[in-house]
Amino acid sequence: MGGGFYVSKVVGVVGIVFGAGAVATIIALAVVYSEELSKSSNAVGPTNGGSTVTAPGSSSVKPGTIVPTTKPSNEQWDKYRLPDTLKPDHYNLTLWPRLKPNAEGLYIFTGKSFVVFQCVKETDLILIHSNKLNYTKWEDGNLAKLSALGSIKAPTIKTTWLKETTQFLVVQLDGKLTAGESYKLYTEFVGELADDLGGFYRSEYEENGVKKVVATTQMQPTDARKAFPCFDEPAMKAVFHITLLHPPETVALSNGLEMAPVPVEEVGPEGPVNVLRTSFEETKRMSSYLLAFIVSDFDYVNSTTDNVLIRIYARKSAIEAGQGAYALNKTGQILKYLEKYYNVSYPLPKSDQIALPDFNAGAMENWGLITYRETALLYDINVSSNSNKERIATIISHELAHMWFGNLVTLKWWNDLWLNEGFASYVEYLGADDAEPDWNIKDLIVLGDVHRVFAVDALASSHPLSSNEEDIQKPEQISELFDAISYSKGASVLRMLSDFLSEKVFTNGISTYLTAFAYDNTVYSDLWTHLQMAVNSSGTSTSLPAGQTVHSIMNRWVRQMGFPVITINTNTGQISQEHFLLDPDSRPSVPPSEFMYEWIVPIRWMKTEVGQPQLWLQEKTANIPDMKVTGSAWVLANLNVVGYYRVNYDQSNWEKLLAVLSDRPESIPVINRAQLVDDAFNLARAKYINTTLALQTTKYLKGETEYMPWESALDNLDFFYLMFDRSEVYGDMQAYLRQQVQGLFDHYKTLTGNWKDVPSGHMDQYNQVNAIRVACSTGIKECLDLTAGWYKQWMNDSARNPIHPNLRATVYCSAISQGGAKEWEFGWKQFKNATIAIEADKLRSALACTKQPWLLNKYLEYTLDPKQIRKQDATSTIVYIANNVVGQPLAWDFIRDRWTYIFKQYGGGSFSFSNLINGVTKRFSTEFELKQLIQFQAEHNDFGSGTLAVSQSIERTKANINWVAENKASVQAWFHAETILPS
Ligand code: BES
Ligand code: ZN
Which residues are close to ligand 2, an ion, with C-beta < 5 A? Predict the structure, then answer.
């Protein structure tokens, strides 16, 4: 099946057949194509298939013109989903990315591909995905060649054309394909190797003053079709034979292990060129979205664990500096852990991981060749913080978890994405915990996922985890699913499930699921079936409530949006559940499911320091006599926040819990101390309790040194800052928090020997950062002098940065916000000169901390200039600026002014768009801002993957307006009364 389709000295059989004519066409095409592109200033790729293509029904439409779809048409090619007539078996694909621009200044790639597919239902139509590719037109005027594999003859092609909206290459046949027979479709094509972070794209960087180009891919969810024509749906699994042509001084990587590169002379549009031809071992049966092709001059470090070759690739200078070592060390260990966890061995012979200078997401689980942004893979002890290190360990663990769950067994359609991403987002903590057992990292899922998603899942504009298959059709609809609900609610409910089944039963079910569906596809209920099988064979040890199954319990959490608040009345023993809505006056956007906002809720709880047996709440209300307490006894529910719900109590139990917090905080598990704060603040937002009761949970922090409760409180107070940092409440709030944090600041000063040592615990290191951040932001002079002093020292001797990596982001921010242009310009210079992205990122966030509007405006301009700020970082930088109270209005004006441009240039990504909209509008709390937001929504009819974020922002703004009106006076009075002013 060898590649060999380009005319080369090593001529393949097919090469002789298709040879000369094809090359001539490609040359012509590439010229036409680049002319087309250079004519149109904002072209991102070839449009409607060059000069050869017209769509039936729109006969003499000029090529490249988008056909208005006024009359509704119901042809097969107007639908986004593939018909069920054909199934791919294998592909043979050769791609040749050009790492230098052509005469017109364009980077392109050329490709030749055939796919062998089976006809499962008789049809005279072949639909195969294709987007922004320009095809060679063959002698018969068509864009593809069709042959039959067996003894029968393939029907002739009637016509071929490209359907832009649904992204198909349409092949209409004169006769029918026969069910049960296999056919081969051959194409040659040209695409642009653009810097658009999707499909086959290019990433650029400078090394020793030389500009370098990497050709790389990001296929998920629907961009494999931008690299070659393919049946681009997750259930269309096939075997892929990949060949890459690349310059002699480069290496080529793909999913399979590479075979020895062969030097060949290729003839492309540019004439004969010496290249290397690298073919890869055929892949396993897999989905197209998991493919990866990379050409670079990167270097690597490697090791072997249990016969699996592990390699970490990165820029040569990064590898030379040892920045791949940490990832290499941890990968083998995490792979082993996951093999044990799944009880299925790693399915591939190798695991490559590569750090790319330009990458849209954090990382991507391509099977056997995982791609990362540099900050998510490269570690340097002299520059990286403990938080950077944790991110590397967890993200590796997350992507490796997908190698089985997602890659070996794949959900049939994107509507079930939540199970794939939610599962990896849960298991990432387990793998990282195994790699770094001293960190207690499993606890952090409560802050990182449960709290994070509670905030959005409590909105009326939330949505259920699972969507209907029919509702998810367009690429934008698919992209929109990569949200906090899929990731963090998915992770949270799976953690709860694993807990109430027990890890043993849970992993048994996972294991048989993975074995039963290996190399195949599933729907989420297949997992419930296997977990139920595991429950049934576990005997009596697992206690589901009588009459309930994994299906019946989990459907409640998966098919209806939101989560319950459990109210416990310790005077009566009455407990009840209710849909928790942050704005009690709002109405859910999704009509209630058949479950009517009732859940089957596992409740772990304790009574005055003594753990109690788990309970189930299956009805709206129940009477639990054990929960009735008197005297000083108290009840605490949702131990370790394993359950996906909030808990409210009667007033006297709240008061007793507050007393315990201040007198004997260690009687309450640290996660629950964080939870009491978070529940109280959110219950207050939803008007279940008074805001002042919520604020009271922060009083005990004076004596608290643990990270989780502090972080939880600061996250919640952050909302108060957003609402009040432009109002008269600000001064009192600052005074109160300054008073609360002083002890923590002093604690760390002592613990670190006057800021010389690093606290030993991972969580302590985090809380040290909190101590400095809050002490400085609330204006403790000693802190401000400390940070400004360190930064000045660095400015005086830029070769020696005296600031510990853990503290850098915070110290830079504090110093830049106190300083002026000199401090900012120094930071900018260091940003541009940084040799590791982790350092650059710290500066990039700190540069947004200046209080000078003119610097912030200049910085905003830089965000849309890829020479200054990489495209991958544009939206997060704008959000950093909006986080700054001075930058907020500037950022809002900026994105409104440039919206059309931003949307076009940066709209391809999945995460960034909703983050941008939510980030820039999160301070909104006035009628005037609401009006602006509504007007913004009306002015643009397309927000792509940010559509939901716009409606969420409107809902949030309305809620904020009400909240401020109701709480401003009492909050100010409370802060004022609770602050002991220095005499
Ligand atoms: N499959 C995703 C990457 C992805 C995200 C592709 C969105 C296309 C659209 C990958 O497994 C992932 O989830 N990456 C996360 C990191 C993870 C630790 C949460 C990311 O990129 O942030
Ligand atoms: Zn993932």
Answer: 421, 424
pLDDT higher than 60, residue 666: yes
Closest ligand 1 atom, CA of 221?
Answer: 8
**What integer is the mean pLDDT of 386-411?**
98
Q: Which ligand is nearest to the CA of 364?
A: 1
The helix or strand, by DSSP H or E, that contains position 119, with its residue range, turns out to be strand 108-119
Distant-in-sequence, close-in-space partners of 854: CB < 8 Å, separation ≥ 6? none
Sequence-ordered list of residues with C-beta below 8 angstroms from that of 840, at least 6 positions apart, any chain: 831, 834
Distance from C-alpha of 179 to C-alpha of 121, rounded to nearest angstrom = 5
Give 947 or 41, the one with higher predicted confidence. Answer: 947
Ligand 1 lined by 396 (C-beta under 6 Å): no
Q: For residue 630, what are its two tokens? A: 């008197």
The secondary structure element, H or E, covering residue 174 is strand 168-177
Beta-carbon contacts of residue 238 (< 8 Å; ≥ 6 apart): 88, 89, 90, 91, 115, 231, 285, 286, 288
The amino acid occupying position 119 is: C
Ligand located closest to 375 CA: 1
483 lines ligand 1 (CB under 6 A): no
Ligand 1 near 360 CB (within 6 A): no
Q: CA nearest 826: which of 861, 794, 802?
A: 794
Q: Residue 486 C-alpha to ligand 2 middle, in angstroms?
A: 10
Phi, psi values for residue 113, rounded to 5°: -150, 140
Q: What are the pLDDT digits (tens) for 240-256?
A: 999 999 999 999 999 99
Tokens 């642009």, located at residue: 192
Residue whose CA is at the smallest distance from ligand 1 atom 8: 220
Q: Is the peptide bond before 759 cis (omega within 30 degrees of 0)?
A: no
Would the annotation count 402 as a binding residue?
Answer: yes
Predicted pLDDT at 270: 81
Query: Would the pLDDT of 847 be above 60?
Result: yes
Interatomic CA distance for residues 828 and 374, integer angstroms = 19
Task: Return all residues near 594 (Cβ < 8 A) that are at least 6 apart.
Answer: none
**Which of 421, 487, 492, 911 for mutating ligand 1's site (highest number of atoms within 8 Å of CB)?**
421
Q: Which residue has the tokens 């008197």?
A: 630
pLDDT band at 190 (very low <50, low <70, confident <90, very high): very high
Q: Tell me what the pLDDT averaged over the chain comes to.
A: 91
Please name which of 98, 109, 134 lies closest in space to residue 229, comparing C-alpha atoms: 134
Number of neighbouring beta carbons within 10 Å of residue 587: 8
Q: How far apart are CA 837 and CA 847, in angstroms?
A: 15
Q: Using a 6 Å cutoff on CB, does residue 915 contact ligand 1?
A: no
The catalytic residue among 36, 399, 480, 706 is 399
Q: φ and ψ at 247, to 5 degrees?
A: -60, 150
pLDDT of 673 > 50? The answer is: yes
**What's the pLDDT at 541?**
57
At 443 the pLDDT is: 98
- Domains with residue ranges and CATH for the chain: 23-297 (2.60.40.1730), 304-404 (1.10.390.10), 405-538+546-558 (1.10.390.10), 852-983 (1.25.50.20)
Ligand 1 in reach of 421 Cβ (< 6 A): yes
Q: How confident is the model at residue 18 (pLDDT cuts 50, 70, 90)?
A: very low
pLDDT reported for residue 981 = 72
Which of 370, 405, 482, when mutated, tests ligand 1's pocket best, judged by the most ligand atoms within 8 Å of its CB?
482
pLDDT at position 980 is: 86
pLDDT digits (tens, 9 = 90+) for 744-757: 999 999 999 999 99
Helix (H) or strand (E) holding 825: helix 821-833
* Confidence check: pLDDT of 593 > 60: yes
Active site residue 966: no
Pocket lining: 910 vs ligand 1, CB cutoff 6 Å? yes
Q: Is the pTM of this model over 0.70?
A: yes
Nearest CA to ligand 1 atom 5: 361
Q: Which helix (H) or strand (E) holds 182?
A: strand 182-192
